[in-house]
Amino acid sequence: MSAARRAAPRVAQPTTWSRAAANHGHPLPREGGWGVGIFAAVLLGLTFAAAPAAALEFRSVGEAAAVMFDAPSQKARPLFIVARGTPVEAVVVLEGWIKVRDAAGDLAWMEKKSLAEKRMLIVTARMAEVRAQAEAGAALVFEAEKDVLLELVEPGPLGWARVRHRDGQSGFVRVNQVWGL
What we know:
The chain is built from three helices and 14 strands. It is mainly beta and 181 residues long.
């Protein structure tokens, strides 16, 4: 057995102490004392630490194809290959590697250099309707089938995104018909 395996990590044992003992015999923090300030700072810190991320980071595959691995290493097991333009959600960044989630929810690692800043969306509905304006009754510009890639031109009004097809047609699509926002 190696020395590293024999040496068990030390775990701090919980200690019991009362508020009164911690505050020199006073049951509550004294006015103007550090107790209230420290308590407030810890509470505030925990509030922000538990808050979810405000914005998701999406990117797209920039190379002709990118290999997805089960770990952040070229020696790791390759899982699958994704095509250029496929949108992915960045989950973890680690020195040249990035753990991503695809539209199906699968997690895998890929080299960071394989990604582009260009934002692409993938159609998740059976058929997405791209309209001239961000309104349900607006003229239909084109329809895109499931798994078609659309370039994100800009986020539109609430519930819509302005997109462009690789053929040049553009318009607005409902955000519940695509993934990558």
